[in-house]
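Changelog excerpt

This revision adds worked examples to the README so contributors can see how folded entries look when concatenated. The first example is reproduced verbatim below.
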Amino acid sequence: MPALFSAAEFARRAARQTPPEPGEDYGDHRLNPDLRELFAGRALRDAAVLVPVVDRGEEASVILTKRTEALRNHSGQVAFPGGRVDPEDASAEDAALREAMEEIGLERRLVEIVGRMPDYVSGTGFRVTPILGVVRPDFHLSVNPHEVDSVFEVPLRFLMDPANHSRDSRLWEGRERFFYRMPYENWMIWGLTAGIIHAVYERLYA
């Protein structure tokens, strides 16, 4: 049996996922039920992110980025590599791999897709498909400074520990909105990215 927080065990658990139960949807509305009505009247924009788990033996890590302040959506936030699904993309997987290459220079030949999560609906109007990938450790990144300020890794063990999943809130458009946050060293992981991480925990490790 592979070590619990190894890339091999992550891939095994990703492959063993069962389809979501009817009504088992993921998104910011889980902590903010009133958002369901808002989503019902909006056309959601399709996006995909890569959840890149680096094979580092018994203790895998996850690549995250800090987006630049100049971006229109989720500026300055910690995020997975990813973005909108373009008409030219063959699939959500293709979009996630393309974005990872464009944003941080992660070559798709170094990424093994091991599964995908159910779509995650964000309060900003995106339907995000998280693509689960295992990354060979011999990568060399090249950051696109127009989109990414910095890249760092967080131990998978840390992210899959629910003790690190704090709930917080802030006022947004005059209403209190709740979200997960996961402080790690000098980084604050919160919002959409923390929500996806919590969903990965629920489906693969809880």
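The second example, added in the same revision:
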Amino acid sequence: MSVMMARFYPLVCFIFLLLPFLSGAQPQQVIYSWPMSMLSDVRGSYPIALLHLAIEKSGTDYQLVPSGQVMTQHRTLRQLGSNNGLDVVWTMTSPEREKELRPIRIPIDRGLIGWRLLLIHQDNEQKIQQLDERQLKNSPSVQGSDWPDYPILKANHFRVLGSGDFDSMFKMLKARRIDYFPRSITEIWPELQQRPGMSLAVAPKWVLNYPAALYFFVQKDNIELANAIEIGLLRAIEDGSMQQLFLQHFSSAIQQADLKSRTVIQLTNPILPAETPLKNKMLWFDPQLGY
């Protein structure tokens, strides 16, 4: 080795060591819309676990990272759409959301978001049980004013108030300013456990049902990430790992809901996008099968 080569050899080796990083070989970060401060909240555990599973099954080299702060649903979707620090959200679909964002049209919770039990004040249990369907619709309830559920209930002639503050809806229920707060099977039990001092309960007898899809959404032009998530989900469906994860997280809640013994009020969903894959039965929850 010449004196000149010997002098530059360590520098050449250092450059070669840096090449994987300079060429972008590090995993690309994907920020999902669940803040780090809420990682212990069980409501986020399934979609986060499923997103990890989908990325793993896709064979892509993405690094999933939680977001930095708690935001309202409206602000979260705006931030994703403006390409401002978010890459993936999971939320119920609507025509507006599919216009602004790119949906991966596989309902991640098999449509359980559209199976709604009624959260009530425990002192109103007998009152709610004795109502008929017309009386239930005329009783005051609440939903998020920017949630798709709000216009769905309105279109089905429910007396529903809109609120922009999630915690205030539970306070309204505690103060009995409303009679019930419809929550999905996947949400209601954790939310009840998180508020032991509010005298809340799950109403007997009733369950509302409307076709609804909870999707992963990405930015409109992020085709690469959308394809990775879709491929991963399809592979997880095919090999049964998505079913296994779904049952691991929700079988207890499904059993506790005891849908077969409840009176189902079937609602229409006028804002369900036409592209929703309702005919693909393998993607949707069947209460008779429990999956």
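Reviewer comment on example two: The radius of gyration is 23 Å. The longest strand covers residues 28-35.
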